[in-house]
Amino acid sequence: MYTTYKCSPPVTGNAKAVLTLNSFQKGGDGGGGDRCLNFITISANGRSVAVLDECDSTMGCDGEHDYQPPCPNNIVDASKAVWEALGIPEGDWGEYDVTWSDA
Fold first, then answer.
1. Contact between 7 and 36 (Cβ < 8 Å)
2. Among residues 40, 47, 70, 96, which one has the fewest Cβ atoms lying within 10 Å of its Cβ?
3. Considering Cα of 84, then 88, then 90, then 96, what sign does the dihedral take?
4. What pTM, to 2 d.p., does this model score?
């Protein structure tokens, strides 16, 4: 049994999180589930980017999600485009400490 989160918790400032690399294209391992339809701002490496919060942390333990458990609520999945926009060197892609806030 796993704790699941239907949406990111409200924040009043910058919240610490771990950025992970996911594909949001058809057949990719990111996205799906209900969207919160709120933009968040992810900040790292001296840069910021606004993205739509997809809130997929309730999904997991199935073939579509590689039978991995649902994500904790401090994970921010992002596509290659977000990593590039943040200027994070490709050798550091995978998991990266970031902050996020409501946009």
1. yes
2. 47
3. negative
4. 0.69
